[in-house]
Design goal:
Blueprint: H1 3-13, E1 37-40, H2 60-65, E2 71-75, E3 78-81, E4 84-86, E5 92-96, E6 102-105, H3 109-113, H4 115-118, E7 119-121, E8 129-135, E9 154-158, E10 166-167, H5 171-175, E11 198-201, E12 207-211, E13 236-240, E14 247-250, E15 253-258, E16 260-263, E17 268-273, E18 276-281, E19 284-286, E20 290-295, E21 298-303, E22 306-308, H6 317-321, E23 328-331, E24 343-348, E25 351-355, E26 357-360, E27 365-370, E28 373-383, E29 397-402, E30 405-416, E31 435-438, E32 441-443, E33 467-472, E34 480-483, E35 486-491, E36 512-515, E37 518-523, E38 537-540, E39 543-546, H7 557-562, E40 564-565, E41 618-619, E42 625-626, E43 655-661, H8 668-677, E44 680-686, E45 702-706, H9 721-732, E46 736-740, H10 751-757, E47 769-770, E48 795-796, E49 801-805, E50 810-818, E51 821-826, H11 830-833, H12 843-864
Parallel strand pairs: 1-2, 2-5, 3-6, 4-14, 5-15, 6-16, 10-11, 14-17, 15-18, 16-19, 17-20, 18-21, 19-22, 20-23, 21-24, 22-25, 23-26, 24-27, 25-28, 26-28, 27-29, 28-30, 29-31, 30-32, 30-33, 31-34, 32-35, 34-36, 35-37, 36-38, 37-39, 39-40, 43-44, 43-45, 45-46, 46-51
Antiparallel strand pairs: 7-8, 8-12, 9-13, 11-12, 41-42, 47-49, 48-50, 49-50, 50-51
Helix pairs in contact: 8-12
Length: 867
């Protein structure tokens, strides 16, 4: 028996579940300093105490409620069960006591602390199935089959190793012993497949079910689960979706999290929403559906953080994507920009591992991502598409990604827009400012768990290799400057340039430069087919080679002239991912000059990530490995200067609005975006009736109603007498009500509607025309007959002002004053007209889209006085 197998057996013997996938968090000796220091001790604390080290508080939530003036909150070692919120705008640090490991846990305590009594054998279940003795909260009645199948309501981990359990969509998967991916439909609720140890919550009763089944896939070897099967002997961290995130930072400023562990969620573990100047230092986050979710935040710094996903060693991509949740490690983008999208993120010496999706940056403007490890991602590694806003402004861009180790990702750099958009310009599709990708090592030697065997006759050992880039829905790829990287171990499925994806996605006007990279394949040939759009694609000075002795490297003249078809002469190399490599090339004479204005932390000509003779840099938490993947002793990592300012100004709230959304509410995201772009804070309620008597209208300038209350099954679906009285009083004092197409139905049967629109005759509307061309709302129009007015739903009225009309008694864009306020009706659907990438865009359609959004913006500016 060799030394490696002996070490694996010894490691497995020390864990009742499975050996850890990654190093487990350890306490640090960071010195304790600060002027206002408060302490929480779960073992000895009491919330009636003073919060001092001698008389600590007992709970995190209690402490945060009493620290509105900021300070340092120190957590003594142990598990702090909590779901806490931070809203502090004063400098606040939450950290662990020196030398102690503090864990914030959103899970259910009895499954960790008293497993023997928390579970019972499931009488009607299969062999090895256990059911919780108690029922637990449900977020809502599940929308799947009977028993709540179809939604992931619970997720969990083994506490001894923090290896994830499968969060099952279907009880049938939890009960199945079928190891093969032989189901007819990927998301079938009629055929089932075993995804290993699993937890599932009954959507009717609230009881949890768990089965720690052994996995039986020959090709996985030691990655199969062979641990304890009696859940009563196994402490678990189990959380239900109804409990929400573990820690939420909302509208917080100047908050630092240090040396703590955050775990126990079936949704997002850590949420950072509408914040500024947030620092995560030495934080370990164990994900649920998301590990870290960030929205509309400026100035986020992360260093020495570990972000772990829900992919177990025995999981294939299909187990997570189709039989559980499409989990992400770090999600800071959204398909529709919000209007105040995130900016200025720097992430260094951190790790993002073991998930379906990795790090999503698309809508973040200003990203600095360096000295990190991204590994074992079975779908998108780093997502960088910058989506276009409703007014044609691109939210993201300006990304620099350097000196990272990127390994075992299905698609290292990913592109797509989901249900978002990229508008069409005359010569290209609009993108962001692009990404500078330099001095990274992309190690594709270890296969991704992608192809799940369908039977015993299928190939059993995973074989799918990492690709450089790929997309969803054929969007335009961001402009990229890709230089001085080392990409090894590839296996191409189709001819391409050097590594799968480097020459792809050039058809929609993007630009790309690929200089001085080392591109080596282990299987087959590296692609030497350049894209046709050569005027926008520059590939020079790259070393291209194959270590596959059975293949002959073809040397087409064009590629050979611009690049070097030669063995890079690594200091040491092996196609076996278990073996260490040294990827410094033998020659210093290859490569081409890189423009002086390009970002490069090393400034060495050569080729590849690490120049010949240079010292490979450290990556990961406390630099625990070098960029080649070789394990190192922990050492202090040299400090570096942060790229963005220490302080980010928070835009002031200029007005407030209330948005009520029925179904379908196509226009709500657009007006929400426009209002936020103008500094308007929006309180949004989707498919939820909000009585106007309790809506606190007094502090709001706008009330927006979109979508049918009736179709949304809202009760009631019309405003009653008291609501209308509150509405009219608010309008009299200067409020503005905006009704989108057909939304006078919320006043059905009331005298208010008659007073609002008059008593028009029953006649048919005419074609919509512009009645008041010089009206300030219509300044953005480029012609007198916009094509988007071909289909409207005008309001029948004999009062008010029709800016766009459909006959003498019909208003398409109409307003009517009520006291100091007014009611505005917009009789067409902006959302129904707008183009998106999936439906395909045309320049004319996108010009029309931008016109409509700018008209809406002019209306908002007029009624609020905000410029």
């Amino acid at each position: 028996m060799d030394g490696m197998n002996t070490a694996l057996l010894l490691l497995a013997a020390s864990f009742a579940s499975h050996p850890p996938m990654r190093p487990l968090p350890e306490p640090t000796q960071r010195a304790l300093d600060g002027e206002r220091i408060f302490v929480v001790d779960v073992a000895k604390g009491n919330d009636a105490s003073d919060g001092t080290s001698d008389a600590p508080w007992g709970s995190v939530a209690h402490a945060l409620a009493r620290m509105s003036d900021g300070g340092v909150l120190v957590l003594r070692g142990g598990t702090h069960y909590t779901h806490a919120k931070v809203t502090s705008t004063k400098p606040l640090t939450i950290r662990a006591w020196p030398g102690e490991l503090a864990v914030l846990d959103g899970g259910i305590a009895e499954f960790a602390d008293s497993a023997a009594t928390a579970w019972e054998v499931c009488a009607e279940g299969v062999k090895g199935e256990f059911r919780s003795v108690k029922a637990y909260p449900l977020e809502k009645p599940a929308a799947g089959e009977e028993d709540g199948d179809g939604e992931v309501l619970a997720m969990g981990r083994f506490i001894d190793s923090m290896v994830p359990l499968h969060g099952a969509r279907f009880r049938g998967d939890l009960q199945s012993d079928n190891p093969w991916w032989n189901i007819d439909s990927k998301s079938s609720a009629r055929q089932f497949v075993s995804c290993g140890p699993a937890v599932w919550q009954d959507g009717k009763t609230g009881h949890l079910h768990c089965r720690l089944t052994h996995t039986q896939l020959p090709g996985l070897g030691a990655d199969n689960y062979r641990g304890e099967t009696d859940v009563r002997k196994m402490p678990l961290c189990v959380a239900v979706r109804a409990s929400g995130p573990v820690l939420t930072l909302n509208k917080a400023r100047n908050v630092t999290l240090q040396d703590i562990v955050i775990r126990g969620s079936a949704v997002s573990t850590l949420e950072i929403l509408n914040c500024a100047d947030i620092t995560l230092d030495g934080v370990t986050v164990y994900g649920g559906g998301r590990a870290v979710l960030v929205k509309d935040t400026s100035g986020l710094r992360m260093m020495h953080c570990a972000v772990r996903g829900v992919s177990a060693p025995w999981h294939y991509r299909g187990a997570m994507k189709y039989r559980s949740v499409e989990a992400r490690l770090f999600s800071a983008t959204q398909w529709m920009p919000s209007g105040v999208d995130s900016r200025d993120f720097e992430i260094a010496y951190s790790e993002f591992t073991d998930s379906e999706d990795g790090v999503f940056f698309g809508c973040v403007r200003g990203v600095r991502f360096h000295h990190n490890l991204v590994e074992n991602i079975t779908d998108d590694g780093i997502f960088i598409t910058a989506v276009t806003g409703w007014d044609s402004v691109v939210a993201g861009g300006d990304m620099r990604i350097w000196q990272n180790r990127l390994s075992r990702c299905l698609t290292t750099f990913a592109f797509g827009v989901g249900h978002g958009r990229q508008i069409a310009l005359p010569e290209r599709v609009q993108t962001g400012d692009g990404a500078w990708i330099t001095r990274n090592v992309i190690d594709a030697r270890r296969p991704v768990h992608y192809h799940w065997p369908k039977s015993a006759s299928d190939p059993q050992v995973p074989s799918f290799r990492t690709r450089f880039g790929g997309d969803h829905g054929s969007p335009a790829w961001e402009p990229m400057w890709i230089y001085h990287n080392t990409i090894i171990g590839g296996h191409l499925e189709r001819a391409d340039f050097g590594s799968a994806g480097l020459g792809s996605g050039m058809g929609k006007g993007t630009t790309r430069s690929v200089l001085n990279n080392i591109l080596c394949a282990d299987i087959g040939n590296p692609g030497l087919t350049f894209p046709q759009q050569r005027e926008r694609f520059d590939a020079r000075g790259n070393v291209i080679w194959s270590f596959d002795a059975e293949k002959k490297l073809v040397k087409p003249g064009e590629a050979e002239k611009a690049n070097f078809i030669t063995d890079p002469g690594f200091s040491s190399y092996s196609a076996d991912w278990r073996q260490n490599v040294d990827l410094r090339p033998k020659s210093t004479q290859l490569g081409v000059p890189v423009p002086a204005e390009w970002f490069d932390p090393i400034r060495d000509r050569g080729v590849g990530a690490v120049p010949a003779g240079a010292e490979p840099w450290r990556v990961g938490v406390h630099g625990r490995m070098d960029v080649f993947g070789r394990q190192l002793d922990k050492a202090p990592v040299e400090s570096f200067a942060w790229s963005f300012p220490d302080h980010h100004d928070v835009p002031p709230v200029k007005a407030r609005a209330l948005s009520l959304q029925g179904y379908p509410a196509f226009d709500s995201p657009i007006i929400y975006y426009v209002m936020r772009r103008h500094g308007i804070e929006v309180e949004s309620h989707e498919r939820e009736f909000v009585p106007l008597t309790t809506a606190k209208l007094a502090d709001k300038k706008l009330l927006v109603i979109d979508g049918s209350f009736t179709r949304a099954k809202m009760m009631p679906d019309v405003f009653g007498i008291n609501d209308l009285a509150a509405l009219e009083a608010w309008l009299q004092k200067g409020g503005t009500l905006i009704l989108f197409s057909q939304r006078t139905d919320v006043f059905k049967g009331s005298e208010f509607l008659t007073r609002l629109v008059g008593t028009p005759r029953r006649v048919k509307p005419e074609a919509a025309v512009i009645a008041k061309r010089d009206h300030p709302w219509l300044k953005p129009l480029t012609n007198a007959s916009p094509s988007w007015l071909a289909k409207t739903s005008p309001i029948a009225t004999t009062t008010g002002e029709s800016v766009i009309s459909a006959g003498p008694t019909f208003g398409v864009l109409w307003q009517n004053p009520i006291g100091a306020g007014r009611v505005i009706y917009i009789g067409w659907s902006l959302g129904g007209k707008l183009t998106d990438n999936r439906r395909g865009g045309a320049v004319e359609a996108d010009v029309a889209m931008i016109e409509q959004v700018r008209v809406l913006s002019a209306i908002i500016q007029d009624v609020t006085g905000i410029k």
